[in-house]
Amino acid sequence: MADACDVLVIGGGFYGLYLAEFLAARFDRVVLCERESGLMQRASYANQARVHNGYHYPRSVLTASRSRVNFPRFVQEFADAIDSSFEKVYAIGRRFSKVTAEQFETSMKRIGAPIQPAPKPTAALFDPAYIEAAFVVREHAFDAIVLRDIMRERVRKAGVEVRLNTTVRSVQRAGNDGIRLQFEAGEMRTQHVFCCGYSQLNSPMAGSGLPCVPLKHELAEMALVDVPLPLRHLGITVMDGPFFSLMPFPARGLHTLSHVRYTPHTHWFDGGAEYRPAYEVAANFEKRTAFPHMVRDAARYLPAAAQCEYRDSLWEVKTVLPRSEADDSRPILFKPHYGLKNYHLVMGGKIDNVYDVAEVIDAMFAESIPAHPGCAA
């Protein structure tokens, strides 16, 4: 007889860990399966480590406002992982920007995000021929290693069973409401599956002959750099268009340099019967850093950026909903009972918005499943 659990979570990134702990408050046995040898090794680590406060999304009121609501909660809950030691600056491009400085400032004030003109020494770092205005805002970074350690301990205390080096190959109906999951070796039965696989979200469905969710994948590069002294204690984003960000990356003690034009090296789509294994595509793509192009363009707007010294690159698959291309929004994808009853899909583009999907799942279960005794909801 196959091993059994109440809930199985696919994916050991931040969303999978957070939801596994959350679900352990309602179910006796929660199992989390992660295909890698450790937790939070993929997209939850290889990103800009930005704790969003709404500034990045002036063209998406919903994403900006949800970030603004969740920011203080995330900062408080994960205080040990938060780096607030730098000053965050958003600068608006004079040409090619999709918002003006006035529009940016107005939209941020509308959602209550703190913003003020950058002081003269900071504003002087930018070339006025290319930058209309610069603003000092309240935005932080997180240390992905510390965050991983926090979540690893939390799921342990919650009683979640973590299985590493475990890939779910397929899913199928088992009885009236159950689901059978097939691994490389063995299988398991469960009542509910929450697939939090991010770029691998479609993998179990493709292996089961179920339709894939429409997704866009990009092989993304973020250059890890040493910044010159004038930029050492700054985080800088030039927007809103084909520009760049230079953000502290606490896990390495460096900055990441990303560029809207040069960070994506290739892209492809999933959807319906179309599926390409994201990690295989990424592994087979020849990786040549675009840092020279990134830094050359960044230096036009921020001359001191020319002195950045390249150290390494973070390469990872970035996955978004195709409809987000228009307004750069990052909605959370939640599709309950997708293809099979009790098989639920979850994909979040931003770590700090996990609370939104937790609330939706809580509401879904509230009437039918009481909280598990002895666990915090």
Please tag this protein with its features.
33% strand; 9 helices; eight-stranded mixed beta sheet; alpha+beta; single chain; 377 residues; nine-stranded mixed beta sheet; globular
Structural commentary:
With 377 residues, this protein is α+β, with helices and mostly antiparallel strands. It is built from 9 helices and 20 strands. It has helices at 14-23, 61-77, 101-110, 120-123, 144-158, 203-206, 278-284, 291-301, 354-366, and strands at residues 3-10, 30-33, 50-51, 82-83, 87-93, 115-117, 131-137, 140-142, 161-163, 168-174, 178-183, 187-195, 212-226, 234-239, 244-249, 254-259, 264-272, 309-320, 333-335, 343-347. A hairpin with a 7-residue loop joins strand 19 and strand 20 (343-347). The protein is globular, with a radius of gyration of 21 Å.
